[in-house]
Amino acid sequence: MSKPDISRAKSAALYEKAKTYFPGGVNSPVRAFKSVYGTPLFIEKGDGSHIWDADGNEFIDFCCSWGPLILGHNHASVRNKVMEVMQNGMSFGAPTALENELAELILTNNKFIEKIRFVSSGTEAVMSAIRLARGYTKRDKILKFEGCYHGHTDALLVKAGSGLVTFGETSSAGVPKAFADETIVVALNDKEALQKAFEEFSGQIAAVIIEPVPANNGLLLQTQDYLTFLLEICTRNGTMLLFDEVISGFRIGFEGAAGYYGIRPDIITYGKIIGGGLPVGAYGASAEIMDHISPVGSVYQAGTLSGNPVAMAAGIAQLTELLQPGFYQELEAKTTGFVNSVREFVAQRGYAVKVFTIGSIFWFAFTDQDTIRTADEIDPNSMLKFKAMHRELINRGIYLGPSGYEVGFISSAHTTDDLDRTKTAIFDSLDIVFELNSTI
Predict the structure, then answer these.
(1) Is the pLDDT of residue 439 over 80?
(2) What are phi and psi of 168, to 5 degrees?
């Protein structure tokens, strides 16, 4: 039975006020709840696996600040380390020993990179990595894949045209056509398109950038064979392979997708998981490649808040926890058990729902397809079912990201009780979606 909508009076009032300050009332578009019912929830508190909104509603959170809160909200180790470091100041614009400590923690436990540069966001990491690839290869063109998102960098805020291999078409106003003309866009999981692109633009492609675990437009899991092919074709053509691991890095394993698939790309970018959820990003590569960055090399990149001591402190505390024996195995087992329960339920009911998963990431797709590897395999009409499910889950105290294209995350803070309650809520919600909304 459908539950009545929770009270959002305070959140709604805050949203109306926010619209007078910010475009659309938000500081990041997906927060506007345009793809689901109701106004955005204004969050006041997070602790463990739970969050509370301005109206006092409590939710089990599977958004986890879009992934980086792998330990859950307000983890004691992270909080205590941050408070300790904050006593000495919060920003210097100068080196601190904390940068060395976090870098050593990462590099000694990740065999795929030898040097790293901290920045302030995943977008900045990708932007800097693209510049490094161009500077290193002395080439201009970048190849990306339809269905992968790499932040709001101009050259990558593009979509595919109507051909097998196309120049990017800008997906945002304000991106010059000249920028898009340096970006080639092809479909995921299409070896023929890749081969054609390298033939057509022989000697011109500086880098191929991919989310090795595409998780910004559904969970478009690629095969080992395809990713290996991608590495091989880049190597043959003197093109750098760039893994955008802003989501997958430190989430599906300490070495991310590179470690999961056993593939060494030329450059890897990371996001805010390395700062315990605080604003931070990084990119890394071999020492030889990284030494092309200023001040030792000719590729310029700088940032006053790069290596911010508070973010470094949070990262040290969080990554130390991730290195505990069995951490990732236990988290994946928890996720697998949760996902399998949902799969068994939908199979018994005969519902057209698939749950895709890797590590501690999961994604609901309203489809009969056993695999979805490309963006065009996602039926836009299926988002109406997600919209209905999202509303039912919110009213049952379960919080997923407000878009059916977004993935969910399980943290070490999610308890057996949390997951049992969530499964019951999902089962009830799906019954409503399919029985009361059969026309969706």
Answers:
(1) no
(2) -65, 145
Q: What distance in Å separates the CA atoms of residue 216 and residue 57, rounded to the nearest whole number?
A: 27
| CA dist., res. 60 & res. 242, Å (int) | 35
How far is it, in rounded angstroms, from Cα 321 to Cα 346?
Answer: 35
Tokens of 97: 């020993």
For residue 154, what pLDDT is reported? 74
Catalytically annotated residue among 61, 81, 141, 149? 149
What average pLDDT is seen over the chain? 94
CA atoms within 13 A on the CB side of 210: 27
Asked if omega into 295 is within 30° of 0 (cis), the reply is: yes
Does domain 9-74+325-436 match CATH 3.90.1150.10? yes
238 close to 204: Cβ distance less than 8 angstroms: no
- Choose, from 81, 144, 272, 354, the residue flagged as catalytic: 272
Which of the following CATH numbers is that of domain 76-322: 3.40.50.300, 3.40.640.10, 3.40.50.2300, 1.20.1260.10? 3.40.640.10
pLDDT class for 180, splitting at 50, 70, 90? confident
Give catalytic status of residue 328 as yes or no.
Answer: no
Q: What is the pLDDT of residues 340-362, one digit of tens each?
A: 999 999 999 999 999 999 999 99
385 in active site: no
Model pLDDT for residues 378-426, shown as the tens digit of each residue: 999 999 999 999 999 999 999 999 999 999 999 999 999 999 999 999 9
Instruction: Assign 260 to helix, strand or coil.
Output: helix
Cα separation, 398 vs 41, in Å, equals 12
Residue 162 has pLDDT above 50, yes or no: no
Q: Could you tell me the residue ranges of all domains in the chain?
A: 9-74+325-436, 76-322
Q: CA 332, 334, 336 angle in degrees (round to 5)?
A: 65
Query: Would you call 272 a catalytic residue per the annotation?
Result: yes
Number of Cβ within a 10 Å radius of residue 295: 6
Q: What is the pTM of this model?
A: 0.95
At residue 178 the predicted structure's pLDDT band, cuts being 50, 70 and 90, is confident
Instruction: Please indicate whether the domains covering 9-74+325-436 and 76-322 agree at the CATH topology level.
Output: no
Which one is catalytic: 244, 266, 354, 405?
A: 244
